[in-house]
């Protein structure tokens, strides 16, 4: 209970008791006032201090004025213990912090003189009154002792109630902390990519995380955690693995920890480990925990990596072979030129076709070598607009031959970048010529640059026939092409160049409306001077 709530209880219960005691007050032999309202008043002032004590004191004085038929100013001081009020308020702060015996002693210290004043009030108010009867003295003494005992009992009961409240608050605080920690631990366990489940001595599930529930739901998608708790874990695994998991659980319940072992459940491969759960105080085994780690994707990636390594080796061999092919091709082309000079002009057409095909084969070999070698590009600080300006005459010449136009939209805010100028020229040239080949006469090719946050974007857009959605995902695959005579190496080479510049390339295309390739180059000084 909070301090404000306790003060409210003190003032309300004390006020009600003072009011009832005043209403039913009487006297001993019509002389000595009998009103136990002074007990809740003093207790309320000691526990509540001036905030509670002053309203209670006012109520006590008011009740004495209303319910005492023989009210006098002197009687007000004598019957209500008024002279002791300042002492009670002064003692209040230390009273609440002290132990039980000290509190009872302080109450008695204030209550004794107050009771003596009350019992002596008739003699003080009427000096001629004779109250020497032994029976009356014993009754008065009994009245005083009863009041003292009752006051001590009330303090004891209040302290007992407060102690229970404190214990209750402590228990609630510990419970809330435990629940919060349990929730955090469960969230952590649920977030882990490892499937975990704990079981009791009978092999029945006591807790399960979300990853394990996803595995369990492969048998029944409608299952919830509440559905599986209390049931054997083997009910929710493949029949082929039930005996093996039972064996692992039995071993764990006997105190044996079994490390990772590869098993197959359904279509997935898992590493499974089991450990006993023990009581931290007694060391007794109270259950077991099973952990499943799905390594299906890891196994697939490992297999793909092995394939990539084999393909890389094949690529290196092919690159070496194609490099050697270029030499005899150059010799063949040289001799063809000599033969052309000594042959009749009627054969020039055939010589031209052969040399064009040799040049085309040589171009394919160059593209393949650029793609296969995947060399590290040497970079310098270049402005993208300078590279585009250098290529503009060549691009305009190609466009004019096709009856097409080119539009340049260059953002002046674009900064210099760490680029390999030769490779960027090849990138722009490949994408631009692809766009031109995709357009008919009067088509327009747009080359645009713009600064976008931490990237410089290069957009090359055409107004051609567009690319079908089904083909867009495979555009950058080697040897995949949408052209009748394409090799499928151009865009793969573009992707390789962009990746060597730590950039990204994407495509947006709609059939009948054109295609746009967007390349993002990072704007960062960290790339400057990199090799």
Description of the structure:
The chain is of the alpha+beta class and 531 residues long. Helix content is 58%, strand content 17%. The chain has 15 helices and 14 strands. The chain has helices at residues 3-23, 38-67, 73-79, 85-97, 100-125, 134-191, 210-216, 225-228, 239-253, 296-342, 348-373, 384-402, 421-438, 469-472, 490-500, and strands at 26-28, 32-34, 195-199, 205-208, 258-265, 268-278, 285-294, 380-382, 405-410, 417-419, 444-452, 455-462, 504-510, 514-522. The strands form 4 sheets. The chain has a 5-stranded antiparallel sheet with strand order 4-3-7-6-5. Strands 9-11-12-14-13 form a 5-stranded mixed sheet, covered by helices on one side. Strands 1-2 form a two-stranded antiparallel ribbon. Strand 6 (268-278) and strand 7 (285-294) form a beta hairpin. Helix 2 (38-67) packs antiparallel against helix 4 (85-97). The chain is elongated and about 165 Å long. The two termini are 70 Å apart. Its EC number is 2.7.13.3. It is an enzyme of class 2 (transferase).
């Amino acid at each position: 209970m909070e301090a404000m709530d306790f003060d409210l209880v003190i003032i309300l219960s004390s006020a009600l008791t003072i009011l009832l005691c005043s209403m039913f007050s009487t006297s001993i032999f019509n002389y000595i006032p009998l009103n136990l309202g002074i007990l809740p008043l003093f207790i309320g002032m000691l526990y509540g201090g001036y905030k509670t004590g002053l309203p209670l004191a006012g109520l006590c004085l008011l009740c004495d004025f209303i319910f005492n038929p023989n009210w006098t100013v002197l009687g007000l001081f004598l019957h209500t213990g008024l002279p002791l009020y300042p002492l009670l308020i002064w003692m209040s702060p230390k009273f609440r912090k002290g132990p039980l015996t000290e509190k009872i002693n302080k109450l008695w210290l204030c209550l004794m003189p107050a009771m003596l004043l009350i019992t002596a009030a008739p003699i003080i108010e009427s000096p001629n009154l004779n109250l020497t009867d032994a029976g009356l003295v014993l009754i008065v003494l009994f009245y005083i002792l009863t009041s003292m005992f009752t006051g001590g009992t009330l303090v004891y009961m209040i302290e007992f109630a407060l102690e229970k409240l404190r214990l209750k608050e402590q228990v609630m605080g510990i419970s809330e902390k435990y629940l919060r920690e349990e929730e955090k631990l469960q969230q952590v366990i649920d977030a882990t990519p490892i499937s975990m489940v704990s079981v009791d001595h009978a092999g029945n599930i006591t807790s399960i995380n979300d990853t394990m529930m996803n595995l369990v739901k492969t048998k029944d998608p409608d299952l919830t955690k509440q559905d599986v708790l209390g049931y054997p874990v083997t009910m929710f695994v493949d029949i082929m693995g039930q005996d093996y998991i039972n064996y692992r659980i039995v071993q764990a319940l006997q105190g044996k920890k079994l490390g990772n072992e590869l098993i197959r459940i359904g279509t997935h491969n898992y590493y499974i480990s089991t450990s006993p759960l023990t009581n931290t105080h007694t060391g007794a085994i109270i259950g077991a925990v099973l952990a499943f780690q799905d390594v299906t994707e890891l196994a697939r990636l490992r297999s793909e990596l092995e394939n990539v390594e084999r393909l890389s080796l094949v690529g290196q061999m092919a690159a070496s072979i194609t490099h050697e092919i270029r030499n005899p091709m150059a010799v063949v082309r040289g001799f063809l030129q000599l033969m052309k000079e000594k042959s009749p002009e009627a054969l020039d057409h055939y010589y031209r076709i052969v040399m064009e095909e040799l040049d085309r084969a040589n171009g394919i070999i160059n593209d393949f070598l650029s793609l296969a070698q995947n060399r590290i590009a040497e970079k310098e600080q270049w402005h993208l607009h300078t590279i585009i300006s250098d290529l503009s005459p060549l691009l305009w010449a190609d466009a004019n031959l096709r009856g097409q136009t080119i539009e340049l939209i260059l953002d002046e805010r674009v900064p210099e970048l760490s680029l390999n100028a030769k490779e960027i020229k090849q990138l722009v040239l490949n994408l631009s010529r692809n766009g031109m080949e995709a357009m008919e006469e009067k088509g327009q090719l747009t080359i645009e640059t713009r600064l976008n946050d931490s990237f410089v974007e290069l957009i090359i857009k055409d107004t051609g026939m567009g690319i079908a959605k089904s083909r867009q995902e495979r555009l950058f695959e080697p040897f995949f092409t949408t052209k009748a005579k394409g090799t499928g190496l151009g865009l793969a080479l573009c992707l390789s160049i962009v990746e060597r510049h730590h950039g990204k390339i994407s495509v947006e295309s709609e059939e009948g409306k054109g295609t746009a390739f967007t390349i993002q180059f990072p704007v960062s000084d960290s790339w400057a001077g990199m090799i």
